[in-house]
Write a structure and sequence with these properties.
654 residues, alpha/beta, Substrate Binding Domain Of Dnak, Chain:A, Domain 2, Rossmann fold, six-stranded parallel sheet, 49% helix
Length: 654
């Protein structure tokens, strides 16, 4: 490449739009005018290290860091002799272990809350879905006949906690929810997790210097550890949250910064754990608290969310999300956020100095996470409502300290709340609930397949661009799309979660959506709720006609804008479950050819799934639609069949 061409290429990269969201662009313009740094500006100032970004750097011990670069880099080793393959596979294992620890700790806390409720030790909680409690009890082998609800709840919580501690026979309880063929494969390969904590600890042990040094063996541990989340910690988190807070059903809401209100107290919940946010919702809706807000000059209290806490309260209460991961600073810059309440995960440390420039009160609540400069009000389930009221009151008291308010007008209508139970009901009704209509319409080709678009935002790529582009293009091609996490927020902001989107869908998908009365893009919840997708896939297999395993299905998963270890854990457990998975942004182990080969072709051969990386969204679209067609051919359902209206004689013949 010539110097001039290289300069043009660099300039083109620098001119990449920060976002396709006009609300975000409006706030970024204000930030630039006022000289305020955000994650969007810092990413330009902080160039990624090309050596570390491609997996060629190891810093696990004090002999290094070792950089495997330069002439003959592929043959180089670290000081201990570690190859590119060893370094890359250790990175994947550690990233997966960290992601599993984060999501599964969420599940553990929900289980502990349920246990404390069964003992009468907590304040404000109740069993919102006793029917689901009984179903979960059955899956965990807990007796329900003739027993009090709190007795059942206590035993369910203890069984759940046993899955973390490793006190379970034959591996995690929920492995039994996978298709039989998948279970047999995992057992044959030794991939059934023995307990969430045990797999995370063993991952850290194996990746210590001088322990496991075989690429395939290391990556097998990544698969097993990831499964302890997808079919363990995260799945338990979803089920027990439904038990405590209610199983979601479709509801209407709005999304984006435009949901903030100039004349009301704006309180944002941000993070991932619903134990606190559920209490904040209840406290903010108390008549006496609303009257208190009015006494301060506000018309009321407006609760909104950021990230996955937003998804939790959206799915169950219709509370509007103010945005996804990259919106957290922009919300504060509006000048309208009186309190931002955070717990764990995806919370930027930059919020603290930013909040101090405005009037926002940043409140940390988890015993696991403090931020310098923030107010810490530690949450305790035993005083849950009391603490929630205290926090809401702090936000109300701060309302009168507002300065200039600049709230963008943009917001999108959305429909959320599609639990796997509701999808089952939606397809067949109360008395004939079944995935049969979905299977039949995949078989007859009206629906070509399904794709999950999940995950984060990353400021190194244009915010929401990949998520929105891929969603629109897939439904045009008669592919049903399901979403969770920040990807679902993106679609909500841009109006993609409405039934009206069926007008943009292909003829076949639109026909099914019109008949069933569902949008072609379904919001299934927060990031831990990717476990709902696993449950749906298992039920589709069980329904019959589309193979015997998840790996037989014409499905794929995409994480276009990932940024964190949790995403890698999710992608790995999806691949381990037999799903074709494509990530955007960049491949963190690109230089580790042996690892790249193992995670693609090696995993395909071993578990039927793959974990691939491709930053070009058009190529991603081509890859996943190609995969869907390959699976349709393998199932023998790729040829279009003529639709025949059957008369009575033909029916008798059948």
């Amino acid at each position: 490449m010539s110097d001039s061409a290289e300069k043009k290429s660099k300039k083109k990269k620098e001119e990449r739009p920060k976002s396709i969201d006009q609300a975000a662009l409006e706030m970024l313009e204000i930030a630039a005018e006022e000289g305020i740094g955000t994650v969007f500006s810092r990413v330009d100032e902080m160039k990624a290290c090309p050596i570390g970004a491609a997996g060629s750097c190891c810093q696990l011990c004090a002999m290094g860091p070792c950089r495997l670069v330069g002439k003959g880099a592929e043959e180089k080793t670290g000081i201990c002799g570690a190859t590119h393959g060893t370094i890359g596979s250790r990175f994947i294992v550690r990233a997966v272990a960290a992601g599993v620890a984060a999501h599964s700790d969420h599940g553990r806390d929900i289980a502990r809350t349920l246990l404390a409720l069964s003992k009468g030790e907590v304040q404000g909680y109740e069993i919102k879905d006793p029917e689901k409690l009984n179903r979960v009890a059955e899956m965990l082998g807990v007796e329900t006949e003739g027993r009090e609800i709190m007795e059942i709840a206590g035993d369910v919580a203890r069984k759940a906690l046993d899955n973390f501690n490793g006190v379970v026979e034959d591996g995690l309880s929920y492995v039994a929810r996978a298709p039989e063929k998948r279970q047999e494969l995992w057992r044959k390969l030794g991939l059934v997790p023995r307990g969430v904590d045990r797999e995370v600890v063993e991952s850290m042990h194996r990746t210590h210097v001088g322990v496991d040094q075989d690429v395939e063996h290391l990556l097998d541990q990544a698969l097993r550890t990831s499964l302890s989340d997808g079919w363990g910690g995260a799945m338990l988190a979803t089920d027990l949250s439904d038990v405590l807070f209610g199983t979601p059903k479709p509801l209407v809401s709005e999304a984006n910064l435009g949901v903030l209100k100039e004349d009301e107290v704006n309180i944002l919940v941000h993070g991932h754990e619903p134990t606190l946010s559920e209490m904040i919702v209840a406290a903010a809706q108390k008549p006496e608290m609303i009257e208190y807000a009015k006494s301060k000059g506000a018309k009321g209290i407006n609760l909104a969310g950021i990230c996955c806490t937003a998804n939790e309260v959206l799915m169950r209460h219709g509370i509007s999300p103010a945005g996804n991961f990259l919106h957290q600073e922009l919300a504060i810059i509006t000048g309208s956020v009186d309190a931002m309440i955070v717990d764990v995960q995806c919370v930027l440390q930059a919020l603290s100095p930013l909040a101090q420039k405005y009037h926002t009160k940043l409140i940390t609540t988890s015993p696991k996470a403090k931020i310098p400069g923030a107010v810490h009000v530690e949450f305790d389930e035993q005083r849950a409502m009391e603490i929630a009221e205290e926090i809401v009151r702090m936000g109300v008291d701060n309302y009168e300290n507002r300065g200039e308010v600049r709230i963008p007008s943009q917001k999108g209508d959305l429909v959320a709340g599609f639990s796997h139970e509701y999808i089952n009901y939606m397809l067949g009704g109360r008395y004939r609930a079944s995935f049969r209509p979905l299977n039949d319409n995949i078989i007859n080709g009206r629906i070509q397949g399904a794709v999950a678009i999940v995950g984060c935002n990353n400021p190194r790529v244009t915010q929401d661009a990949g998520i929105v582009y891929l969603t629109r293009e897939l439904i045009k091609r008669d592919v049903l799309v399901v979403q969770t996490g920040c990807a679902a927020h993106a679609s909500g902001k841009h109006g993609l979660l409405m039934p009206e989107m069926m007008e943009e869908a292909g003829d076949g998908l639109r026909e099914v959506c019109e008949a069933v009365g569902m949008p072609p893009v379904l919001h299934l919840g927060s990031c831990v709720d990717n476990s709902r997708i696993l449950t749906v896939l298992s039920q589709v297999v069980e329904e019959g006609g589309l193979g015997e395993d998840i790996s037989d299905l014409p499905v794929a998963a995409i994480c276009p804008e990932y940024y964190c270890e949790k995403a890698l854990a999710i992608g790995t457990y999806a691949a381990a479950s037999g799903v074709y998975v494509v990530f955007g942004v960049r491949n963190p182990v690109e230089d580790c050819k042996e690892v790249v080969e193992m995670m693609s072709n090696g995993w395909e051969e071993k578990v039927g799934g793959q974990l691939l990386f491709e930053p070009d969204y058009e190529k991603v679209l081509e890859m996943v639609t190609g995969r869907i067609q390959e699976k349709r051919v393998a199932l023998g359902i790729h040829e279009e069949k003529e639709r025949v209206l059957m008369d009575m004689a033909a029916r008798r013949e059948l």
